[in-house]
Amino acid sequence: MRFFSSNVKNRIDAKGRVSIPAPFRKVFYREDDPTVILIPAMRDQPALDGMSMSQFERMVESLEQMAPLDEVTYALQTRLIAEARQIQIDDTGRIVLTQDLRDAAGLSGDTVLFAGLGRTFQIWSPEVYEERLPALRALAAQNFNRLQWSAAPKPDAGHANGGVA
């Protein structure tokens, strides 16, 4: 799998049809099952969370590791599985955002914004996304130190000067 990155605005028609950005489609077409999974935003945001079927399966597997009769497990299953929609990509690279999905994300205009988040993406109203972007940028700037970068190669333990003879 490749990653969803960047953000792209696309027009949505009266029937809820919208073209998936070409770089996003490439991610889906690398999958065994190029189905788009959409869920009303998992973080109580006016957006839709989107992912590939394989990413959705990983999320379901994670939920299956939780205590099956626990109330939190049930709440998460209801929120993440029961509210998920499996949407097929048509021959022209479009998906249909049903009215209930548009309502859940506050998508009332004729344009939506796809925002890539790595293994997932979101669909926003462009205006709402732009309003929230400064706060997200500020939070990111305060927390770049939390990124876990790959460890640098360790110097040769046999040499105190890092392996230089």
Automatic annotation (TrEMBL):
Q: Which residues form the SpoVT-AbrB domain?
A: 84-128
GO CC annotations? cytoplasm; nucleoid
What name does this protein carry? Answer: Transcriptional regulator MraZ
Which HAMAP family does this UniProt record tie to the protein?
Answer: MraZ
Alphabetically sorted, this entry's keywords are: Cytoplasm, DNA-binding, Repeat, Transcription, Transcription regulation
Q: How does it assemble?
A: Forms oligomers.
Q: Which Pfam families match?
A: MraZ
Q: SUPFAM superfamilies per the record? A: AbrB/MazE/MraZ-like (SSF89447)
For this entry, list what GO says about its biological process: negative regulation of DNA-templated transcription initiation
**UniProt GO molecular function:** DNA-binding transcription factor activity; transcription cis-regulatory region binding
In its UniProt entry, the species of origin is given as: Rubrimonas cliftonensis
Asked whether the keyword Metal-binding is assigned, the reply is no
Classification via PANTHER family? TRANSCRIPTIONAL REGULATOR MRAZ
Does the keyword field hold Transmembrane helix? Answer: no
Q: Report the sequence similarity comment from the record.
A: Belongs to the MraZ family.
Locations listed in the record: Cytoplasm, Nucleoid
